[in-house]
Amino acid sequence: MKTQYITDIKGRKLSVILPIRDYNEMLEKLEELEDLKAYDEAISKNEKAIPAKEAFKEIEEKRDDL
């Protein structure tokens, strides 16, 4: 990963510039980590599982309410 920095006049790093490909890859990996975290939380609650079809239906209904 080729990383560039934006610095202030004293040379302190303020920001990072990444190639868009690297940025998008980081976002995808972050989303995967969030999914894993949500999965781990759901498993730890030991709640009853529901079929995926039903889950998607509930998600769509909640989305329509917004």
Number of domains: 1
Low-confidence runs of at least 5 consecutive residues: none
In spatial order, strands of the major sheet run 1-2
Count of extended strands: 2
SS strand fraction? 5-15%
Q: Helicity level, as a percent range? A: 55-70%
What structural category do the secondary elements indicate? alpha+beta
Number of helices: 2
Q: Per the principal axes of the C-alpha atoms, what is the gross shape?
A: elongated
Any overview of this molecule?
It is a single chain. With 66 residues, this protein is of the alpha+beta class. It has one domain. Helices cover 61% and strands 14% of the residues. A two-stranded antiparallel sheet has the order 1-2. The longest helix has 26 residues.
What is the topology?
Layout: E1 4-7, E2 13-17, H1 20-45, H2 52-65
Antiparallel strand pairs: 1-2
Characteristics of this structure?
single chain; 66 residues; alpha+beta; two-stranded antiparallel ribbon; 2 helices
Briefly say what this structure is.
By secondary structure, the chain is α+β, with helices and mostly antiparallel strands. About 60% of the residues lie in helices and about 15% in strands.
